[in-house]
Write a structure and sequence with these properties.
With 114 residues, the chain is of the alpha+beta class. The protein has three helices and five strands. It is 25% helix and 31% strand. The protein is globular, with a radius of gyration of 14 Å. The N and C termini lie far apart (41 Å).
């Protein structure tokens, strides 16, 4: 079965399900017209399967479909955006410059809100 993204608002997280099992999740917080990705996690038994990236992209897709932008403060999510520049336009406008240019020295660190 293909992975499925499920919004679990009671837990304030998106969950990635495979065959009915929660294999990864992204904790989020609403922020006006944006959603903050605060933390992502993949179940230990599924580490190295690429599920973190799949989850992060799915969260960006869901936010875009809802007309929201993303504030990726989770270090993994921020690094994922830096490796996938096609997602920069989905980042909150005030933070996009942190992803557009090579910012060597902090490429894998969290986003610094201004």
């Amino acid at each position: 079965m293909a992975p499925q993204l499920v919004d679990n608002p009671r837990e304030s997280r998106y969950e990635l399900h495979v065959d009915g099992e929660t294999v990864a999740w992204a904790e989020y917080r609403p922020a006006g017209g944006s959603v903050i990705i605060a933390h992502t996690e993949v179940a230990a038994e599924h580490a190295g399967e690429g599920l973190g990236g799949l989850l992060t992209r799915a969260v960006f897709d869901a936010a875009r479909a809802d007309g929201r932008t993303v504030i990726p403060i989770c270090p993994f999510a921020a690094a994922y955006v830096r490796r996938n520049p096609e997602l920069v336009d989905d980042v909150a406008p005030s933070l996009r410059s942190q992803f557009r240019a090579d910012r060597s020295g902090d490429r894998d660190g969290p986003v610094q809100p201004r």
